[in-house]
Amino acid sequence: MTPAGGGPLVAVRDLTVRFPTRHGVVEAVRGVSFRVDRGQVVAIVGESGSGKSVTARSLVGLAGEGARVGAAELAFDGADLRQVRGRAWRALRGRRVGFVLQDALGSLDPLRRVGAEVAEPLRAHRIVPGRQVDAEVVRLLGEAGIPAPESRARQYPHQLSGGLRQRALIASALAARPDLLIADEPTTALDATVQRQVLALLRERVGDGTAVLLISHDLGVVAEIADHVYVMKDGRFVEDGPAAAVLESPSHPHTKTLVGAVAGHARGARPGRVSPSAPEAAGTAREVLRAEGLVKRYTLPGRGEFTAVEDVSVTVGAGETLGVVGESGSGKTTLGRLLMGLLEPDAGRVLLDGRPWDGLRGPERRAARRGVQMIYQHPLSSFDPRYTARQILEEPLRADRTPREERDRRVALLLEHVGLAPDVLGRRARELSGGQRQRLAIARALAPGPQVIVCDEPVSALDASIQAQVLDVLEDVQERLGVAYVFVSHDLGVIRRLSHRVVVMKDGRVVESGEMEKVFDHPEHPYTKALIDAVPRFSSRFRRVPGGRA
Amino acid sequence: MPRSLWPWTAVLVVLAVMAAVPSLFTGIDPDAADLNAPLHPPSAEHWLGTDQNGRDLYARIVYGARPSLLIGTGAVLLALAAGVVIGVAAAQLGRVADQVLSRSLDVVLSVPGLLLVFLVVAVLGPGSGTAAVGLAVVSMPGFARVARSEVIRLRSAQYVEAAHGFGWSRAQVVARHVLPNAAGPVLALATVSLGAMIVASSSLSFVGLGPRPPTAEWGAMLSDSREFLALAWWPAVFPGVAITVAVLAVTFVGQHLNRRVEGRLS
């Protein structure tokens, strides 16, 4: 293959991808056309299920099992991809087209050292002589921003943090110096500061002339690095244009929804919250949950102790939202479980309504548990897989022996609170959409009549527009029922929108806390400043846009 | 259920009815010896021929279904019940109980299975019941281990954690969420074991550790046929076919049920 100079690197016209299933043919991609030039970053943006991943995978012949790919033109560097069969794909994959996937842990072989993974494309395509492979691997890892690449190359994927794994994966995809890098949601699983480093790495490669096809549902990421954006919905492109134009003045309603969903977070708008009657303004909110000097340590196999939570004190007032910010591993989740009384602290204590957990035993403690409920990041795994939605909602009501007629009434009321139609009741959770599942989880958490709900990253697995809906439900429920939230998230936009007060955690300690506006607008701790600066610039750009979504 | 499994399901139904009410299938007494007609080949009068004592082989296979299938089934049920109780106890009663129970299971597993069955039968005396108990003792640790690991896996499941939050007691959470969700893999092991247990019980009868003669039992019939194999093939072939068909039917239908359970859970 010789570089063909002038033409576009990728040219696609009228691409369709169909999947024959038992229930008829599913059209995943319905006639899309796009091009990618050398040194350009092209983004395909859309919600999950819009067909964006399948579109990108068609370029390397990996659209999926049984996929029927058709196109008027499907060319890579002048070569017609429609003619490529079997072995010929392999000359393309890894060598000329690199692939980075969302889930770095899932795409790295757990039994192979990171260095071996990066070396694979080097050996498979004989990029460098065998004796130089090890040196090249170290060079690539270092270039991808991995500190101490010599020792990291000898470690296994599970010994690396999420950000390091993603960087190792990018190093592996770039090893053969491909002309095109396909990055499918490369930063979705990462925290803000890490996300920023990974984006910087991708941008750097574009400087080297590598083209990037970026697949994302995250408009913030897209705004950060893309030159040209295609917006995808139901297998079609509904809008495209230069990134700045599409994001700042979207014309299609769907694009507006996507933009509005992100902008809503960034503006920190909390409709109905600014009234002086909001609990934090009144300053008289009754305290429902208090943690004093919590410490939780875990013994590591062989390597001493790991302190997950170190001397943490927080209070939550009735009807108030306490945002807990921090990167993964900062002890947010452990704190949530301590507050719920599911874990015993090694020191300190948690008081629910003035009564300490450790003073409660047996039936009393079980009854008190109903006062603190939890909403999980992945609602599906928090439901018994055998249960229908009705059984899921009835379970907390059965636990306190609510009579049958009363249960039916309460279930109907719960559905209304979260905006679910009664016809979901007969279905099992896995038959519901992501947004419906999280609504169901909120309804279930409300069922025992709790004073506090601990929300552990409740929207981070959802698309932006669905996120906005679920956050609306949470706000609405709080206004109606006066329930307090402990809202754990690494997403500053989400925290900003929902919280009255914020605590920032790092390495198990609270480094900063206070009123939401004060912490966000005048951060004091350097770590808080770094977190706020690390949010992709899209949000800051949109903070200035007046109006937004009505 | 796929069409290809219908015949095997039909076989299972026929075998079950045969074991329950053998007189529906034949009017001949399986133990009636006709000393004038030893080792008669299959004929209109004796469909599958006769054995060395002139007993009708078809009647003996029909009447042999009950002991042949019951020992294996009984062994699986006993092993299942004991294994689940021990496995759940090991997973739920804390570290000391877990250590004691798990190491005891290791001890049972470390003794060769055949030796253990012989030991049990030698202590309790041969017979259908002791054969079933012996086989159950040998296969119980497998059930206990699967049950224990399933319970440990589910103990930290988010929906189990959530259920604690609703105020259920620990026993209630186990009954409502842990046991029903652990049932799939444990029952899968049971259906897979059933075929092996039927073969194993026939083997015990073959070496004379099953039901006492003259009870018709497929493994024992095979054993009787050995001496006359040069003269007559039918006393060996037909009981052998009966065992094979029964095991295949149990295995195929069991595998299908397993796949159904897995599909429902994943």
TrEMBL record, chain A:
MF (Gene Ontology): ATP binding
User: Sorted alphabetically, which keywords does the UniProt record give?
Assistant: ATP-binding, Nucleotide-binding, Transport
Family annotation (PROSITE patterns): ABC_TRANSPORTER_1 (PS00211), ABC_TRANSPORTER_2 (PS50893)
SMART domains, alphabetized: AAA
Q: Which domain of life is it from?
A: Bacteria
Pfam families documented for this protein: ABC_tran, oligo_HPY
* Domain ABC transporter, residue spans: 10-259, 289-532
What family name appears in the similarity comment?
Answer: Belongs to the ABC transporter superfamily.
Show the NCBIfam families listed in the entry: PRK10419.1 (NF007739), PRK11308.1 (NF008453)
Which PANTHER family does the UniProt entry name for this protein?
Answer: D,D-DIPEPTIDE TRANSPORT ATP-BINDING PROTEIN DDPF-RELATED (PTHR43776:SF7), TRANSPORT ATP-BINDING PROTEIN (PTHR43776)
Q: What is this protein called?
A: ABC transporter ATP-binding protein
The organism named in the record is: Microbispora siamensis
TrEMBL record, chain B:
Write out the entry's keywords from A to Z: Cell membrane, Membrane, Transmembrane, Transmembrane helix, Transport
Q: How does it sit in the membrane?
A: Multi-pass membrane protein
Tell me where the transmembrane regions lie. Answer: 69-93, 186-211, 231-254
For this protein, the record's CDD domains field holds: TM_PBP2
Start and end of every ABC transmembrane type-1 domain? 65-254
Fetch the InterPro entries from UniProt. Answer: BP-dependent_transpt_permease, MetI-like, MetI-like_sf
Q: What is its main location?
A: membrane
The keyword Transmembrane belongs to this UniProt entry's keyword annotation:
yes
Location of this chain's protein in the cell: Cell membrane
One Pfam family, please name it: BPD_transp_1
Q: According to its UniProt record, which protein family does this protein belong to?
A: Belongs to the binding-protein-dependent transport system permease family.
Q: Please identify the protein, giving its name as recorded.
A: ABC transporter permease
- Organism of this sequence: Microbispora siamensis
